[in-house]
Amino acid sequence: MLGEHARPQVPMDKVIAFELEILGSHGMQAYRYSAMMEMIRTGKLKPELLVGKRISLEDAPAALMAMGGFEGIGIGVVTRFQ
Amino acid sequence: MKAVVFEKFGEAPTIQTVPDPKPAADGVVIKVEATGLCRSDWHGWMGHDEGITLPHVPGHELAGVVVAAGKQVSRWKAGDRVTVPFAVGCGRCFECNSGNHQVCEHQSQPGFTGWGSFAEYVGIEHADTNLVRLPDEMEFATAASLGCRFVTSFRAIVDQGRVTPGEWVAVHGCGGVGLSAIMIASAMGANVIAIDLTDEKLEFAKKIGAVATINASTTPNVVKAVKQITNGGAHMSMDALGHPTTVSTRSPTCAGAGATSRSD
Ligand SMILES: [Zn+2]
Ligand SMILES: [Zn+2]
What we know:
Structural class of chain B: alpha/beta
Largest interface: A-B, 63 and 102 residues
Oligomer: heterodimer
Strand content of chain A: 15-25%
CATH superfamily of the largest domain in chain B: Medium-chain alcohol dehydrogenases, catalytic domain
Strand order of the largest sheet of chain A: 2-3
Helix content of chain B: 25-40%
Distance between the termini of chain B: 41 Å
Largest sheet of chain B: 5 strands, antiparallel
Shape of chain A: flat
CATH class of the largest domain in chain B: Alpha Beta
Shape of chain B: globular
Mean pLDDT of chain A: 89
Low-confidence stretches of chain A: none
Radius of gyration of chain A: 18 Å
Strand content of chain B: 15-25%
Strand order of the largest sheet of chain B: 6-3-4-5-7
Helix content of chain A: 25-40%
Radius of gyration of chain B: 20 Å
Bound molecules: zinc ion
Order of helices and strands of chain A: HEHEHE
Number of strands of chain B: 12
Low-confidence stretches of chain B: 253-264
Number of domains of chain B: 2
Order of helices and strands of chain B: EEEHEEHEHEHEHEHEHEE
Largest sheet of chain A: 2 strands, parallel
Distance between the termini of chain A: 33 Å
Number of helices of chain B: 7
CATH topology of the largest domain in chain B: Quinone Oxidoreductase, Chain A, domain 1
CATH architecture of the largest domain in chain B: Alpha-Beta Complex
């Protein structure tokens, strides 16, 4: 959450009245990866389904500049570096 | 090495030949085999992130092979297939000592606090604390996709959100973070509602586990729709529009439908 999205309004009256919790998530510790990796290994999670387009490093500048708009489905990945 | 470099915020990055990184004493150099494209790289390029100094190489979701290790590194050697969380912990501060490397007080972030992985090679410090070994069968492209959005969602749903089987989870936004959250929450046994502006993304969300979808561009009152589907309100609502940091709201009871009355 950066730029104009950094400070959304929070209805604190509802947080109090319904005892809501607001929680951030800032990635995950390396040592916690094992639980996720085991769920991937056993097929319960399939992150490969979320990999979208594959591009080369040459195409990365244009792809980066375009990312302010709507993304395609899934996570684009640079996989060619030569 | 070749790298994507920008000299000024908001000006077109170019492919340049720059010096190869050298490993820090406790760090490694990784030959990048895959690196994800994430909207936070775009924010960095636009100048929204205070930590960036110019010229800069973006890229923070990476997987590759260790090619060199500093002399203090004991767990990693050349040839190891690895990935790394985007928030690299120092391993020594209060947060790291309490197990919370993701919010390390002295964290480095490839592609933000230093040069990132839109390059042939990237240097990562504190390697023993932060590198993660890849299973042999995992493709580099898949591993790269974990480093920011997938792990952020895993922590949001599992460790922070504490989602349990049968709970309702509303995921706002079906980009990388949202789709990851839908897959993970479904695997945890939750009932997931996917919310987005396009039917195409909502169809995909169903394929990976969402039991209900709401198209926010054609639904006048999304909160009301969530309440109807869930018979009262979602136990957890996840804002998956702004990443890599994401915000989740958790309610102790179904009645707390205010969970969805967020700014998104
Ligand atoms: Zn630390
Ligand atoms: Zn990211």
